[in-house]
Fold this sequence. Notes:
2 helices, mainly alpha
Amino acid sequence: xxxxxxxVGSGDVDPSKPVLEQPGGPPQKIIRELLSRDDEVRxxxxx
Length: 47
């Protein structure tokens, strides 16, 4: 049995959700964080 099948079988991952929504996946940014980062880059690029 593959590791993924083992994790699904034990209930550690939900096969109906994308990888990013699985437990232990990479943390996702919220839109507010993305907007503030874009503003910081824009300010840094101004002469």
